[in-house]
Amino acid sequence: MPFRSALQVFNALIQGSYMGYLLSNGVFRLSLQVEADPAGLVPRLMAFFTPYLMVDNSDAPADLTVCLHAPQAFETPWKTRCQIPHLIRETYAVGFTLKVWRGDLPNGESLAWDPEKQVGYRYRMSTRKVDFYGAEDAFIHLIELVRYYGLLVESAKGSAVLHSSAVVSRSHKAVTAFAGVKGAGKTTTMLEYVLAGEHDYYSGDKLLLDVQDGRVRARGWPDYPHIGLGSLRQHPCLIEEFPELAGLINDPACADRHKVLIAPERFAQVFGRAPTGSSWLDEVVLPEVMQSAERSRQSLSTVEILALIDGDSVFEWPAQFTTSTWHGIPPARTDIPCALSDALREALSRVRWTYSPGRSSTSTHDNQATTVCSMSFSQSTRGGAIRLSIVAPSGSGKSTAANYLYEYFTHLGLKVQVLKLAAPLYRLQARFYSEACTALSPGAQDQKLLEQVAGQLRFINPFALVKAFAQELEKTEADVVINDDLRDDQTDWPYLRENGFKVIKIVTDPLSRQRRLESRKDISVIHNSALDFQIERIHADFTLANDSTPDAFRHQIQELANHLMSSLPAGLQA
């Protein structure tokens, strides 16, 4: 057999004979070479990718070659050439924000250096070989390089990436996927299936799909487990399994939605490792965990399935991930699709898709009282029969849309209030300019300052902005509440969604957006913010185009408002 187990690799390491191996899942192939590994990154890497990548003794060419070196081998002259800052990923999980400084060598090689974690990259795009320099603090850099480039290669070779967790039947023949937007309850539902004893863990966050013999083949992909405290709290046996998390789990000030990192090794100890190989996709479950109703199951029609898979809520496209593309190394096949193949689309339409709303069947804390100030953000039941959040990059027309909606609903005699998630940022911006003895024009934005301040606030408390918003929402007596500055999909969007906000996404052509940004005369402008990638992941309930005339845009707003009015209680309808 061409594939060998990770245990054989570990034995080779122990015997000192390890020089390099080809690791593969049959689609993506990684050549791992070692010049020096002072921190033991190789066995950790092998454990992380087992069983998704196995040792392959075939002569197949590698899609990516990574050669490990000690961090001190990254030469000082190379570091001085790294002058361009680059953000690979920004997240609230400690240690997972990845930033580098980039540069080039005269011989055409590219460089990247992370001075904080002492991690260096030296690579040539044409050969797809990366010389990687790092020690203990380099592990996240290393696994994210391989993990996300592997997804890019999979996509280039025709695989689709389903944003889902998954379990497999004990016979290892049928996979059930749990797909949907952030906060829907994918992990909670997956844990229910595993703990019930009839399924094994299969994949944590992404599922690779392709077509084999007319059926949908499903393969897992490794991730660094992030589990919400709410998911753990619903399963007493898990609280016992993770005593190191007891402090957080039992702290009422920690919200259910707060996610904790669990070391992959610990996760595997509790839930076991996924089986080797692939299985057939049997069902896709779309959970929507809520405390207000019993769990139910509703089968989707073929029309509903096709509408879902053609939308933007369940599939991910690695070519759009900064983590997959920041280095600029192209896969051997550079034509990377951002849509399903016809064959896969047709095969998926024959798979069972089930919508499953309702509370967790094993919930043990349905009646626990929570408050806004405790950061558990209990659902606000005060004003706002209509709750809307407008999302789009700067310059797309969010404020214009909010103004049109305000005028329309006010004209009908409804009380309307616009609440901004960024209200604390504007107050802090004013304070900054006051302390700097510099005038600040009304409505002017220093976008660079605002993003930096937001980052610092979230570093101190990831829930800072949404907590302030929740306090204002609790006080409102308006019939219509409009938010026009949603940009974050990690914390803010899940809260708004849980509290009944419908998302309006505005799309516009780049030239129109550019002109609007220039006409605003802001103090500083970020034309391509990292937050724009988060906006792309936010699922819209309604989409409006703002690339024509103001009258045309206003007409779309009025049609949407009419539709929303039809859903109001009779006492509020005009």
TrEMBL record:
* Entries under InterPro entries matching the protein: P-loop_NTPase (IPR027417)
Matches recorded under Gene3D superfamilies:
P-loop containing nucleotide triphosphate hydrolases
Source organism superkingdom: Bacteria
Q: What is this protein called?
A: Uncharacterized protein
Q: What is the lineage of its organism?
A: Bacteria, Pseudomonadati, Pseudomonadota, Gammaproteobacteria, Pseudomonadales
